[in-house]
Amino acid sequence: MERRTFSPRKSDVERNWYIVDAEGKTLGRLASIIAATLRGKNSPQFAPHVDVGDFVIVINAEKVVVTGKKETQHMYYRHSGYPSGLRAIPLREMRQRHPERIIEAAVRGMLPHNVLGEQQLKKLKVYKGPRHPHAGQQPQDLSIDRIERAGAMRHAD
After folding, report:
1. Considering the entire predicted model, what is its pTM?
2. Which residues form a coiled coil (predicted)?
3. Using the 8-state DSSP alphabet, how is residue 152 labeled?
4. Which residues, 6 or more positions from 28, have their beta carbon under 8 angstroms from its beta carbon?
5. Which one is the CATH code of 15-142: 3.90.1180.10, 3.40.50.2300, 3.20.20.140, 1.25.10.10?
6. Residue 132 phi/psi, 5° resolution?
7. Which residues are 134's β-sheet partners?
8. What is the pLDDT along the chain (157 residues), one digit of tens a residue?
């Protein structure tokens, strides 16, 4: 009997839409589940070289939780390309200006650092507040019980 390796095609991929409320969720734990969903790791037809992931909508990005002293010590860097053009912005200031970028940066770091990763990142939609324009896609709640259990255990101490 001849066995062949299965490789999904674009026509085989069926994308779903999921929604996540970031309020009260820990940033890293939330980002790892979002990254796995964007990559398609929860799909039975997962292949590391093909984009088989789903779309993820994140709401209430401004209410995501970080642990420890990250609020003041974690910095976001960008460079203008000119001499002495490096800018460092602390997480607290980034939360006030652009809270969506906090989640986008965390998820970007967990995706492949190549063209495939950029393609997968385009399926992430992050919004500052509770409103989003994707109601027509009928998003389902993303099962993130692990995050909620871990948060509940931390708050019980």
Report:
1. 0.87
2. none
3. H
4. 106
5. 3.90.1180.10
6. -150, 155
7. none
8. 787 888 888 888 899 999 999 999 999 999 999 999 999 998 888 999 999 999 999 999 999 999 999 999 999 999 999 999 999 999 999 999 999 999 999 999 999 999 999 999 999 999 999 999 999 999 999 977 655 555 555 556 5
Helix (H) or strand (E) segment spanning residue 106: helix 99-108
Burial 98-124 (b: 16+ CB within 10 A, else e): bbbbbbbebbbebbeeeeebeebeebb
Residue 57 contacts residue 125 (beta carbons within 8 Å): yes
User: Do β-strands 75-79 and 17-21 pair in parallel, antiparallel, or remain unpaired?
Assistant: unpaired
